[in-house]
Amino acid sequence: MTDLTTSPQLDLMSADELRSQLFAGSEKAQFQLLQTLTQGGETVWDVLMEFLLKQQSHPPSVVEGKVYQILYTAHPNSEKVSTFLQTHFPTGIVPLKSEAGIDYIPLQKLLAEQNFLEADKLSLQNLCELAGASALQRKWLYFSEIERFPTTDLHTLDALWRIHSEGKFGYSIQRELWLGVNKNWDKLWPKIGWRTGRNWTRYPQGFTWDLTAPKGHLPLSNQLRGVRVIEALLSHPAWLKS
C-alpha cells in the first residue's frame, strides 16, 4: 500500500486530488502543479506514471516532458519507476524518427539528464551526420547542405530539445524569436544570450547550460562564419505549417 506521506507536497492533497488536478487542468495549471512535485515520492510517481500512460497515444507536450523528467530523475531510487520507464518508454517519450538512419537515443539520454552542454555538442554532430561524411570530418556545416536535411530528422532534434527544456530550447523556438524581431540578427543575439553589446558570448563558459538560460539560448550555432548557416536552418521547410 502506498504511503501518502512519502512526499511533503501531498500533506494537503490526496492522491485523488493530485490525479484530478493533473488530468483535468489546463496546460498552465498542470505545469504549475508539476513544478511543486519535483521531489516526488511513491504516491506522486504512481500518479505521474498513470498520466504518462494515458497520454502515450498523443504527441508529447512540455507537460509530458516535465512528467517524464521527474520520473527519469527518480528512477535510480525506485525500482518500480525504473521498470516502468524501461517497459513503456525505453527510448524516452519523443519518437526518435530518422530518415537518415541516425540513432538519437544518446541525445535523448543527455537531454533527459539535463546535460545541455554535451547535448549541444552531440546535436552539432547529428547535423553533420545529416550533411554527410565531409561535414562529419570538418565538424561544421555549409549553409548549402542544410536544405537537403530531412524534415523528419529536424523535427526529431527540435522535439527532443523542446520537450526536455520545458519549451525553452530548440530550433523552432529560435525561429519563433527570430521572426518576432523581423529577422533582425542584431536584435536576436542579445535576446537569446549569444551577445552582449558588441561582445559575443564566450564558449563554453559564457553560455548558460541549464534552464535559467534565456528562451532560445540552445542549441548553439557558430556565428564566426556568419549567419548563413543558422538562417538556412531557421528557414528550412520543416518549420512551415502544412
Q: Overall 3D geometry?
A: globular
Architecture of the largest domain, according to CATH? Answer: Orthogonal Bundle
> What is the CATH superfamily label of the largest domain?
Gun4-like
Strand order across the biggest sheet?
1-2
Rg result: 19 Å
Low-pLDDT ranges: 1-12
The biggest sheet, with number of strands, parallel, antiparallel or mixed sense and barrel status, is:
2 strands, antiparallel
For the residues shown, what is the average pLDDT? 91
Q: What string, H for helix and E for strand, traces the elements in order?
A: HHHHHHHHHHHHEEH
Secondary structure class reads mainly alpha
Q: How much helical structure, as a percent, in the residues?
A: 40-55%
Named CATH topology of the largest domain:
Arc Repressor Mutant, subunit A
Supply the number of structural domains.
2
- Total beta strand runs: 2
Overview of this protein structure:
- This protein folds into two domains: 8-88, no CATH class; 105-239, Gun4-like (Arc Repressor Mutant, subunit A), CATH 1.10.10.
- 52% of the residues lie in helices and 2% in strands.
- The chain has 13 helices and two strands.
- The chain has a two-stranded antiparallel ribbon.
- Strand 1 and strand 2 (199-200) form a beta hairpin.
- The chain is globular and about 55 Å long.
